[in-house]
Amino acid sequence: MFNLDWPWIVIIIGFLALIGARLSRFMTGVMRHLAAPPSDVMPVVVSIAVLGAALYVVLSGSYAEAAQKWAFGAIGTILGYWLNR
After folding, report:
1. What is the pTM of this model?
2. Which are the contacts of 50, defined by CB distance < 8 A and separation ≥ 6?
């Protein structure tokens, strides 16, 4: 497939290390400015988790009708929560 000699491997590892260091420094700065209390973060986390499961059930199409009704209900509930907020 690829024939990588040792200089290229060293270059690639060094490049990935530089990207990792830069990304780590960037994320530390972002998190310092965007630190939110858990009461603001948890609705987002729960919404993403439930929405992910519901969308999987709806889009896969291989679940029973009762499961699809649950999924549509969950999507509607989350949508209503965020529109009302």
Report:
1. 0.58
2. 74, 78
